[in-house]
Amino acid sequence: MNNARAAGAPPQRTIDIVNASLKRRYAKERRFRLLGLGAVVLGLLFVALLFADIVGKGYTAFQQTYIQLPVTFDASVIDPEGALDPETLRRANYAALIRKAQREVFPEVTARRDTRALGSMISVGASSHLRDMVLADPDLIGTTKEVWLLADDDIDMLVKGHIDRTLPESERRVKDQTLGWVERLESEGRIEKRFNTIFFTHGTSREPELAGIAGALMGSFYTLALTLLFSFPIGVGAALYLEEFAPKNRWTDLIEVNINNLAAVPSIVFGLLGLAVFIGIFGVPRSTPLIAALVLSLMTLPTIIIASRAALKSVPPSIREAALGVGASPLQTQLHHVLPLAMPGMLTGTIIGMAQALGETAPLLMIGMIAFIVDIPSGFTSPSTVLPVQIFLWADSPERAFVERTSAAIMVLLAFLILMNLTAVLLRRRFERRW
Amino acid sequence: MSTTVDEMSRRTGAMSSAELSGERESRATVGDVTVANPRMVCRDVDVWYGAKQAIKGVSLDIGKNEVVSMIGPSGCGKSTFLRCLNRMNDTIDGCRVTGSIQLDGQDIYDKGLDPVPLRAQVGMVFQKPNPFPKSIYENVAYGARIHGLTNNKAELDELVSASLQKAGLWNEVKDRLDQPGTGLSGGQQQRLCIARTIAVSPEVILMDEPCSALDPIATAIIEELIDELRANYSIAIVTHSMQQAARVSQRTAYFHLGDLIEVGETNQIFTNPKHRLTEDYITGRFG
Amino acid sequence: MVGDNTAAPVGDIAGGHTVRRYDQELAKLRGIILDMGQRVIEQTQAAVAALVDGKDTQAYRVLDREPQIDFLSLDADEEIFRVIARRQPTAVDLRIVLALSRIAGDVERAGDKAVRIARQSLALREGGLMPGALPSDALKDLLRKLDDHACCMFERSIQAVAGFDVELALGVFEDEPRLFGASDEARDFLGQEDLAGFTPRQIVCLLTGAHALERIGNHASNIAEQVIYVSEGKDIRYRNREILIETLRRDRAS
User: Fold this and answer.
1) Which residues are in the PhoU domain (chain C) (predicted)?
2) Cα torsion through A9, A14, A15, A16, rounded to 10
3) Chains B, C in contact: 3+ Cβ pairs under 8 A?
4) Structure confidence by residue, pLDDT tens digits, B12-51
């Protein structure tokens, strides 16, 4: 048939054949482009949904409901001896002051059951707030002052609208009586939502309104700092040795395969390893940033080594030749020329590894980071928890107020992750331009 | 005349079978490999990459104040041989060098000899200009710094400017020594690399296709520079451009499949080569 | 040997380049020169016929055809110029181009010699002094012998160029003594004190013609020298011929 066409009178020119198929080819191309665009849009849509959900649930956690009460700093309650002894001041019964103040605002409430309900409107942390005020300024004793006190989480939820006031009383967490008091306080302007500093300055707590992420943040900080300290030098050193110095033989091949395999090992396995080796054999204290960092270093090492080797590979061999050619020793060649050029890539890999470590939960559960720790950790060996574990714990809590706190903590974690990845991108771009 | 056709077909047949088997005896070199005043003396150098022999029994002298050019088709071993002269091949896994290569009477493959100072004595300029991504000044000063050639900043400044002058780059860069060397043009970068090499006062300069990435003008400048450098250094240059070999060198060595086929005065090689392979190559008859 | 060469006029020595266009350019250049050589032989034979047998039309034809050889020579020069500029020939190619340039000059000058013979033929018979063939059979034989030697040498040298064949070139050198012998004989004959039937002016014309024939043979030798230069890479001009032939033969035998 081809022959017949070749021999036939009108010889078909290539351009005609091309033109005939062009339309089909372009249509194919358009379809492919639309598919790609669709995939990207779908991906973005889900990311947007996720963010909208988290932000929608969590943004209210950055505000906290306060109730204003006229507190009389009664000297007979606080400091009956008048010695202004700090110890006495610290131990005074500030809760009584609050109860007294509530009685003044709601003089009609007298029944014992009702006063207790009234008292539960104010957070248990409010008394320590009063204590801190007095300790900071003992002159307050004897005066009466309008003080904004932290509301209980149920009141907080109610004010923020998370508890539906139109529901029948039996299905509502807040009773009609309390609802009435809240509405009265609201009409008197005694209820206000303020920026939630507690969330950023306190450790976790059983009381949602007193729970903060400071402890977990510090724990994450100490853990990450140690992880970086352990994994970066070891990772870069290993990469440098494997890439530049090690002879290429069966052993180094084996090592290389194993490093690549390690990167694919489920992270919980590292947790088990940490539990068995670091805690079981070396006796590293559990539930501390130190043990967390050791485990996370194991986990991030493959990432760092692989990224560092890629960065080393991307340094043109001509630079090595140039340095060797003027008589630099192999180590000088690496340190003076190759390493500086590979550093941005290595740092990028490290930051990505760190981000991974920051978001990691599973292995930490194995090594006791799940413990309920209220105190903000003060060092590498003090018991602590980390952000993702804190999120995990809060997500498990039954109180409605922990839902928004969970979301808020996720927002903080995401902010840090995005910040780290952004740094990695910026670093790469900055140094790429120079080379 | 017709007999020559037969000879040629016989020869090419022998060549291809040798290529296949890879077990050919080394060919005897045509021409005199020695010079009256040698700086480097290579005798019976074999180079192996694993089981593959890249250089077969090459003997060649590099004289004082002369430019030796090495030509030959790709994969003929000329670059490999050049890289033996300052032990750059050490960095390649599985590379084995036998035979003797002497620099001023000292065997450079001696067990006790450190290749690091050797590379200060035998400098190298590469195919692609490869300045360090540092300032022009740092590029030139680097070798002196690591070898501790100068005692203070003033001496180093002096060395940098002298090297740049010798490389014919001083007038173009003297006002911007702190700018990155990678910002220069290709030809300037290559001259910067030459300046970097001569800053450590080598005795021999090896050049591996130094102009293959440059335009003809930059090439001419480098060639002129090579001719000037001949006064103080021995130069071995590998080039793909036969015209360049003809222009810059005093002696020419033709490599073919790992053999040194012919060595001779450049004038002789380019007018009246003795070996048929050399002639075929330089006249463009090589397939 | 000769048959071999005519069968393969373009010997491999100038061919076999990776760039086939280069081969073609060299072949074209050589073709021009072979063409010139062929024409010069025809011219010489026609001129000698005119001189010996008094065929004036032949003489005029020689004069008419001379410019064609000159033009071919200009073409050859142009081609040489172009090849040097564009191909930068080296080694054997450079020798080929240089040799062909010199050969073109020799062939062109040999052509001039043919013209000179034709002119002598016309001058000899100027004013109807001596119409027709030469009166002396001995002289005719001598001139024909000289012509045979010169043309044979020239033809052989041109064939040598066709394949840059050293054997043929050596043959040209070996013919030289015979050429000189024939030339001497012709000169001796014309130099006789009592040569009857020729005016001194006619003798001069005949001597000039004989000398031109000898010169054609000399050009053939020059061309053969260039063939050796191409093949052997040695410039053998101004060397002792006998020793040269011997060494070349020995080299080739070994």
Assistant:
1) 33-119, 144-227
2) 50
3) yes
4) 434 444 444 444 566 788 888 888 889 999 999 999 988 8
Q: What is the value of pTM for the model shown?
A: 0.75
* CB-closest option in C12, C17, C91 to B5: C12
CB-hemisphere CA count at 13 Å for B186?
A: 13
pLDDT at residue number A206 = 86
pLDDT band for position A102 (cuts 50, 70, 90): confident
Domains of chain B, first to last: 29-282 (3.40.50.300)
- Across the interface, which of B272, B278, B287 has its CB nearest the CB of C18? B287
C91/B279 touch (CB, cutoff 8 Å), yes or no: yes
B43: β partners: B100
Rounded distance between C-alpha atoms, residue B78 and residue B239, angstroms: 9
Report the SS3 class of residue B212: coil
Fold designation for A213-431? MetI-like fold (1.10.3720)
Domain range for residue C87? Answer: 10-253
Using CB atoms, which chains have 3+ pairs under 8 A with B? A, C
CATH, residue C49: 1.20.58.220
| B193 chain-A contacts, CB cut-off 8 A | 322
Q: Is A319 on the interface with B (CB under 8 A)?
A: yes
Chains B and A touch (3+ CB pairs under 8 A): yes
| C3 falls within a domain | no
Dist CA C114 CA A343 (whole Å)? 85
* Count of residues in chain A: 435
CB contact under 8 A, C90 and B270: yes
User: Min CA distance, C50 vs chain B (Å)?
Assistant: 38
